[in-house]
Design goal:
This protein is α/β, with parallel strands linked by helices and about 350 residues long. It folds into three domains: about 80 residues, Nucleic acid-binding proteins (OB fold (Dihydrolipoamide Acetyltransferase, E2P), Beta Barrel); about 160 residues, 3-Layer(aba) Sandwich (Rossmann fold), CATH 3.40.50.300; about 80 residues, Ribonucleotide Reductase Protein R1, domain 1 (Orthogonal Bundle). Helix content is about 35%, strand content about 20%. The chain contains eleven helices and 13 strands. The strands form three sheets. Strands 10-9-8-11-13-12 form a six-stranded mixed β-sheet, with helices on both faces. Strands 1-2-3-5-4 form a five-stranded mixed β-barrel. Strand 12 and strand 13 form a beta hairpin. The longest helix has about 35 residues. It binds guanosine-5'-triphosphate, magnesium ion and zinc ion. Magnesium ion binds next to helix 6. The site of magnesium ion has 5 residues, from helix 6.
Length: about 350
């Protein structure tokens, strides 16, 4: 298999040069579980494990290999198991904060061009959740495509689609059906050969059904919604990078229920261009749009150009992002205090938990 079929470009070759000289072979991560990875190089798929070397570099858990990553592997002659010795810097990534009080990051997919954010018609479309997904995608540097699936369950999708278009802010919104095949040719057109997409959404919206349709046969398991228990048992349990017949790549993911944003330096403003535009006219450059005088954003709500619920959603996400940032800061301080108490050597031995374990 040619590496270019997996999305390898001259830019990656350039980045890989020093590793090539060190005798490593480039490969892309297509699956991961607790201990093993499947990676594909130009000689085919291999079972891979990360080496002690990679552990000893004391990488942040978010920097360990994830589905979509380009890694350097060493292929020993004696076994069929390869060792993963380096991870190339990511072009884009989708991250969230792991559940719970601890401020730790979980990387959901890396090196993706497009993120298909799927919502199901036939049930009320959750605008606020869509906004949250869009912030996550923009923050990671990917381009979103909003996919409204299960069009066959909705008599008249047009009014809903119009509302969603306003939230999507110029990014494509497709009304599709994995059941009837509606608009799947349009979706295929967006997935250019050699590019990588990730498919995101809550459990049961039909992500794997869409992947199967795009693939042309059943490669991913799916489950009827009514057979899922209330705890949200997912039919897809692991992320997987799949090569589609048209030459594009897609990462199917387990459904995300409630999720929190990890960070959003620019993602929030990119996902809310209407609010960002108004904010330029606020009196204070760092206006929080909550209590300040001469706030153009709140004025927009008064004038009726901005929906109050959209501003509320923006402010809620802003609070959440600031809260995670504060907790990260506190954790760093606490860790530094611990380090100075126990001495550097003890600190270096400490093992950080993998956020994927949660
Ligand atoms: N009516 C209708 N049902 C669909 C459509 N797409 C998917 N479904 C059904 O919705 C259910 C869930 O589909 P999945 O593809 O398993 O959903 P998923 O998003 O992959 O779910 P997780 O893997 O749990 O995150 C299945 O019963 C599908 O047959 C569609 O376009 N129309
Ligand atoms: Mg699935
Ligand atoms: Zn303001």
């Amino acid at each position: 298999m040619e590496l270019s079929a997996l999305g390898w470009t001259p830019d990656w070759s350039e980045l890989f040069k020093p590793h090539l000289q060190a005798g490593l072979v480039p490969a892309r991560v297509v699956t991961e579980d607790k201990h093993y990875y499947t990676v594909v190089s130009d000689t085919g798929p291999h079972l891979g494990q990360i080496t002690g070397k990679l552990h000893h570099r004391r990488l942040h858990p978010g920097q360990l290999p994830k589905v979509g990553d380009w890694v350097g592997i060493r292929i020993p002659e004696a076994t069929d198991r390869v060792s993963i010795e380096c991870v190339l810097p990511r072009r884009t990534q989708i991250t969230r904060k792991i559940a719970g009080r601890e401020a730790a990051v979980q990387v959901l997919a890396t090196n993706i061009d497009l993120a298909l954010v799927v919502q199901a018609l036939g049930e009320p479309v959750n605008h606020r959740r869509l906004e949250r997904f869009l912030v996550m995608v923009h923050e990671g540097g990917a381009q979103p495509v909003v996919v409204l699936n299960k069009a066959d369950l909705c008599a008249d999708p047009d009014p809903i689609t119009d509302e969603i278009r306003r939230i999507a802010g110029g990014h494509p919104v497709l009304v599709v059906s994995a059941r009837t095949g509606r608009a799947l040719p349009r979706l295929r057109e967006l997935l250019a050969p050699g590019t990588t997409a990730v498919i995101l959404g809550t459990s049961g919206v039909g992500k794997s059904s869409l992947v199967n349709r795009l693939y042309g046969e059943r490669v991913q398991p799916t489950l009827p919604v009514r057979e899922r228990d209330s705890k949200g048992r997912h039919s897809t349990t692991a992320r997987e990078l799949i090569l589609l017949p048209n030459g594009s790549l897609i990462i199917d993911t387990p459904g995300l229920r409630e999720f929190h944003l990890w960070s959003a330096d620019d993602g929030l403003d990119v996902a809310f261009p209407d609010i960002a535009a108004l904010a330029h006219q606020c009196r204070f450059r760092d206006c929080s749009h909550r209590t300040e005088s001469d706030c153009a954003v709140r004025q927009g709500v008064t004038d009726g150009t901005l929906e109050a619920s959209r501003l509320a959603s923006y402010l809620k996400l802003r609070t959440e992002i600031d809260d995670v940032a504060n907790r990260r800061q506190n954790q760093t301080w606490a860790a530094n205090r611990r380090r100075s108490r126990t001495g550097t050597r003890a600190w270096l031995k400490r093992d950080e938990p993998d956020p994927d374990d949660s």
